[in-house]
Amino acid sequence: MSLLFIGMLGGLVALGAPLLVHMMRNTTFKETDIGSIRFLTEMQKVSYQIKNLVNIPLLLIRLLMITILVLLFSRPAFLIDKPKDVEVTILIDHSLSMSVPGNKNSLWQRALEKARALTKQKSLETKFRFYRFADDVTAMDDLNGLKTPPRGRSDLRMVRHWLEGAMRRGKDKNLEFWILSDFQHTNLPDQAMAELETSLPVKLIPIIQHEPNNFAILSTTMTDRRHEEKGIEFHFDLLAQGDLKKNRSWPLQLTLPGGRKLKKTFFHTGAKSWPVRQFYVKNLNERGLAKLEWLDEDDLYADHHVSIALTPPIGRRALLYNGEPGKTRFENETFYLEKILKITSTQLINWHVKTLPFLPEQLDDYDVIALCNPGDINEEKLKKLSDWNQRGGGLLIFPGDLWSGDMNIKMHKSGLAPANIQSQQVHVPRLVSWWNTSHPALSLFKQDGTHHLENMVLQEAFEVKPDQNAAILAAFDEDRPLIVSRKQKKGIQMLMAQPVDREWSDNPTETLTLPLFRELFEYSARKRELNKTNKRFRLMSDEGKPDWNPEADLLLLEHPSESDLRSTEISEAIRLMGLSKQSQLDEIDSSEMKKGTVEHEIWPWLLIFLLVLALIEMIMGERKNKKLHPVTT
Amino acid sequence: MDNLELVARGLVEGVLQGSHRSPYLGHSLEFDSHRQYHHGDDLRHINWNLYARSKKLFIKQFRAETELKLYITLDTSASMKTRRENANKWKYAVRLASAMAWLAVRMGDAPALFLYDETLHEWVPPRSSKNQFFDIIDTLAKTTPANKSSNKEAFRGAFDLIKRKGVVVWISDFFDDDESTLSLLSQLCAFGHDVLAIQVLDPWEIELPKSGAYEFIDLESNERKKVDVGALRELYQQRVNEWRTRFEQHSQSIGCDFLTFNSSESLVDNLTKYLLKRLEKAPR
Questions:
Q1: Do A25 and B213 meet the contact criterion of CB atoms below 8 Å apart?
Q2: ipTM value
Q3: Any chain B CB within 8 A of the CB of A104?
Q4: Of A196, A272, A365, B238, which one has the greatest count of Cβ atoms within 10 A?
């Protein structure tokens, strides 16, 4: 049952009125004096019985009456689907270009064959009408027997007017139009051609002659570059050879790991080769093969599909403890670390960075904590930090000018510092003279050249004396340690003898800062499995917006094992595309489209019911009144 | 109790308008009838003139020569405080008592006043002077209803003070022990008193309001009871009627009058109605 004026249901608010009156009457007791309550006490039990018998049913009846009244205004009706017969009009291009001979048949013949094949796919109830067009639209009796050779120019502008007229004439019917053409030398602009399919129930079916001069090579360079906001990026080149038709549609299907399919149709602009096209899929965290393929195999010479292995992104969460917040963001101790981690996010590892001037209660939310110029942290917090570190959290210490002897003792007491840090700073410039290339954190720096840590020139380093169980990963000349590391149960502690801010060190200006710190963060970070997400895949345009515009002709296809998702996806696609349900359903399943409805309103029955209730209410009300106003003599 | 005197006088004058006889006859030396002489009769009462004419001895009979005592007994328990917008039970009862007192004074009788709650706590002995009326209304004006009522205890003291036969006007709401009330009425009648029991009730004590939820407070016990009167009204009225009927029937059986006055109704109308009825019944 449906409601024709569903907004009227707002009237149900009126239900509150009798309820309120009832509650008010039953809850507010006015105090009053009386000589004796002996009769009232005797009759208390009887009173409740009477109230239950008279008041509650009366209240229920009144509520029911209001509900029915509201329903009456909402006009409830049973909507019974009554499918309309589909009328398919097939328009076949009969212009001169369709006479181009192919291997076996001309394009005209191929169009007729295609039309015959398509008619067989439709249900028996479907009515077909056949027309041919060039500079005029002419009816055909059937798909056989027309001997007239194709001639003239195809006037798609005229065809569009004809279609609009046909739509107006048959507005009560369930119409569908198929245009079979080579779409060569048409007088309709690309944009108008694309609009034709979205604004009218029209399907454009290209009839292409497979010729050596008319093919394309899909040269796909799919990468798994990841963008924090856009998602994983796929981009491909299409190298067109020969005279590709303008507005030629290229249906592309992307099969994602897990079997989900996304289809996207590109319209060729007419250029010899396409520019690099790219699109993004968000929320893709599955490992496996993704396959990109062109659905229209006939017209592809080679490489009609490519596969690529996808690696899920690794999400890491870092907390940067900012011991000395600066006045501007550049003065912050953590500013450059933030930048480094953000840039790193474009790679497979996705860093979620949070900067705080204090240590939060919930440390388990983070895989790495970097203490940047920590001043005074109380012992309780340090104890928590130590627990978290021992459970697997990675701790990076970048001492600064706030570092004190007290802090040094407290850090050692909590088992957090892998080395004893002297507050006195040694003036440099200093060079990095040695680093452990066999250590996983520094293995990147095996190569010569740009990755050579020797190229780093550092200023203002601390004197560091490593603990016994700590290892020196890198050192200045004279074997003064630069990076010290230690394992504490499951966690890793790393200490850098250099501050990380621009004020105290030249670190940020070093080209090696980014890879070095990135490696240190990645090495020390707690390793954890990523949760698999059940979020839907979504194609994104280059701008990162959902690619749901009609021109892109995006379509979500149903995967056999995920039929339960279908309705949601279709409805969301409709909503996002801003299209009418009808036109979208055309694309999905024409047999489901354009169902008419027959309304069987039930208001007369409700009215009768309401009258009966009113009668009952009157009788009960009368009874109650008699009880209230007894006839006294 | 402003102008209680005027109020009482006004009431009584209104009641007696058009009537020239007291409803309580027999208090003067008025000749009543003759009867035949029997041996032992007082010779002073022989009508010698009649003997001269008829040669038979007849004795003159006279009505009672003593003044009538009107014992006004008023309940001053807390339950008499009940009041509504246009009905004040205590005021009504006081006016009624005052009116009865003035009526007695006007007729030359001797009104007395007894005030009781749990016990008999105040009384004005019977006298026939006009000052007696002022004594009574002074006493009434000073009294405020309070305490519980116990007519059994009260009359235990009162019986000693009302030994002489007279008219007992008992004004109360009778929210007391029913058995005790009925027993006292019987005793008063048995002593030869002419008893008039006037029950003064608040309108809500006779009939509950049509609808609404109220928390009733018992003025004597301070007990509280929450009631949806709409549902209870009919049954309540039925019980009150049964209660009153019991008093009326008992009173009828023992030969005394029992009246119920609604404190929202006109006192003049109620009193007139009763006294006229009594006058009709009274011997001429």
A1: yes
A2: 0.78
A3: no
A4: A196
